Amino acid sequence: MFKLTPIRIFLLIICCVLWAGPGSSIAVAQDFQKGDQVTVTAKTAELKAGKRVVAVVRRGQKQTVEQVNGKWLLTTVTIDGKAQQGWINAKDVAPFKPTPTKPNTTKPPAKQPPTMRARTPKLKKTIPPRNSSTPLFKQVGTLRGHTEDVNCLTFSADGQSIVTGGRDRNIIVWDVGDHKPLSILTGHKRRIRCLQFSPVMDVILASGGGEISHGELKLWNLKEQKLITDLPVGDTEVTSLGFSPDGTRLFTAGWSQSVSVWDVITTRRRGSARTSFGEIVTYLAVSPLEEMIAVDGKQGLVYLQNSESLLETERPTTATQHVLSDHKKNISSLCFSGDGRLLATGSEGQFAIVWDPKTGEPVRNFDTQNGPITAVGLSYDGKWLATANRPTDAPLKIWDVAAGRLAGELDAGSVRAVAFSPTDSLLATSDGTEVRLWSLRPPAVLRAR
């Protein structure tokens, strides 16, 4: 009779592990059920189908997992209706745990009348700029390849590449390390206004643009350097776009009183929700962590809404959570920090405001003392705020958000777009047909030339 002695059990486990092969694991601390949400714990983990790597999953990304024959099948974003699945080490995943929120100790607000009114919270003291003798950034490279002005730029999630688009109707993918182009995507017939990588797969890129009478919206596969599909936006120019945190939905805005919601899997429009405030939407930003979207309104108002409420209705949505009402002139730029804790807004006046999106309260108010703001950018951790202004000779300013002070000024030229890398090691700024890269080297560097 065969007896399971401790030695035999040990040898049996070794054989099972060897049989399972790479990309799998037998012994785990917890059993997952099919469809359970998990968080990747490894810095990067390869998602494999057989010996072929189908995706690189990064730390912190929410996925679903199931156990199949002792191995672990991870499902990530889908493309063209096909789920990207593959085997992954069980040790690289853990149960998904939402970030705990601090208890709200403030008194509840007074009951509001049924009609939505803009709330005007008390601002902290306006922070005037201060002369800086120690600029924070040093220019480390220039990207040259566009023949007309660059309107937009965005980093990949790993910070290894940057994509730029502009009036010349070309999209250029650059290697951040050697500052050389990796590929050029053509197909837009009109200017490009906005770009964004999918938050879960760097091979998927969305681009939008056009003119007031004709819009364009495209999805690209950067790995294969080809167009996935043209999305039918009709006669409305796409001026702003953003992916949902899980990469399955795409939100777009442009010179209309609605926000369109697209299904990235089926590449079909899921809805076009009219805003509850009935105003033209030009700019939007989607929180990378919460189901929250920020959209601009007239007279400097910014509305924070639950993005889930935009999915199933053609009627005006009533899910406005906060109305940010401290700008006196129209909004010209807005963005979330990479960790989703802060929202930055800039207006056609000279003020930039950093907000807590959960409470709708202003954190800092920065007086740039220049002309209209053309672009704002927040570092991933929300430590730094970059502001660009007209006229074109105005310096680009870097602000220390926590300290509420000017940290440095850059002679960056005529800036239309700014973006921090996800690692906060680089800042990219457009200047006409060029893009400049600046390296963050605290506490002191030489002034960029």
UniProtKB/TrEMBL annotation:
Positions of region (Disordered): 93-117
The entry's keywords: Repeat, Signal, WD repeat
The keyword Signal is annotated on this UniProt entry: yes
Chain positions of WD repeats: 143-184, 231-272, 324-365
Signal peptide: 1-20
Highest taxon of source: Bacteria
Pfam families from the UniProt entry: WD40
Database matches in SMART domains: WD40
PROSITE patterns, sorted: WD_REPEATS_1, WD_REPEATS_2, WD_REPEATS_REGION
Comp. bias (Low complexity): 102-115
Keyword Signal: yes
UniProt name for this protein: WD domain, G-beta repeat
Organism this protein belongs to: Symmachiella macrocystis
Lineage, top ranks: Bacteria, Pseudomonadati, Planctomycetota, Planctomycetia, Planctomycetales
